[in-house]
Amino acid sequence: MIEFSIRRSIRKTVGILVHPVRGVIVSAHPNLSLKELRAIVLKRAEWIIRKQNLLKNSATLHPTKRFVEGEQLWYLGKQYPLRITNDKHDKHCKEKHSCHGASEHYCTSSNLLPTITFSGEAFWIFLPPGIRQKEQEESLLRSALVRWYSAQAEALIRQRIEIYRSAVATSHPLIVRVRQQKCCWGSCTAKNALHFNWRLILSPLPIIDYVVVHELCHLKIKNHSRQFWSLVGSIIPDYKERRAWLRQNGRQLDI
Ligand SMILES: [Zn+2]
């Protein structure tokens, strides 16, 4: 079975797009029924799967960004362009855009590290003077961005835990950590410490919520038994779709 989302628009033909993160998107006229669309997708299944495999392979071969002006970076399931400048951070921060909302705005203070600001429309990177080599710049930018994303992830995940913890009915004192790990989106240790992958912040909020609830449920049930999934399902009824999304798109969630 191929999962797809539907985009309705006035058009004569049916368009199918295999997107690296958003999955299969079918654009179709509002008159076409879901049944008709399913049949069309089924007909193109071979092509879709070939395309998906191609994307998977290319993600494995070229998993990283180049961190150049205009490159698109994911944040909470949306893409935003990268703006790179050598100008002083303060000048841009005040003149070129407004840094609004405390949660959206995070500036690193050291003069030797790139400074990152998210304006709501773009990522602004202010390079420290003296970076000459492109390779050095790339690795500095990557680690600065990972730090920025990790800080955002930790703040948001703590917030989401507070929202969901009463639903799981847990009063455990929680240790929450966001880590730079390649594997696993989240884990719950025997001592009830919850660990989350910083890359979650690249995905849409419903996906983050699924992982948060999944790990919170492990505070009560350590395994993946039927009871565990029914607890998850009682809080997030469509958890299967969210889990499938993560399985399908997780690989692309990286910089
Ligand atoms: Zn689990």
Topology (SSEs and partners):
Elements lengths: L3 E5 L6 E5 L3 E6 L5 H10 L1 H17 L10 E4 L2 E8 L3 H7 L19 E4 L4 E4 L7 H35 L6 E5 L6 E3 L4 E5 L7 H16 L5 H10 L3 H11 L6
Parallel strand pairs: 1-3, 5-7, 8-10
Antiparallel strand pairs: 2-3, 4-5, 6-7, 9-10
Helix pairs in contact: 4-5, 5-6, 5-7
The structure holds zinc ion.
CATH-assigned fold name of the largest domain: Zincin-like
Instruction: Classify the oligomer.
Output: single chain
The CATH architecture category of the largest domain equals 2-Layer Sandwich
Largest sheet: 4 strands, mixed
The percent range for helix content is 40-55%
Strand order, largest beta sheet: 4-5-7-6
Alpha-beta content class: alpha/beta
Name the shape in a single word: flat
| Count of beta strands | 10
Strand and helix order? EEEHHEEHEEHEEEHHH
The whole-number mean of residue pLDDT values reads 84
Q: Domains counted in the coordinates: how many?
A: 3
The N- to C-terminal Cα distance equals: 29 Å
CATH class group of the largest domain: Alpha Beta
Return residue spans where pLDDT drops below 50 for at least 5 consecutive residues: 90-110
Estimate the strand proportion. 15-25%
Rg is: 21 Å
Total DSSP helices: 7
**What is the CATH superfamily classification of the largest domain?**
Metalloproteases ("zincins"), catalytic domain
- Can you list the ligands bound to this structure? zinc ion
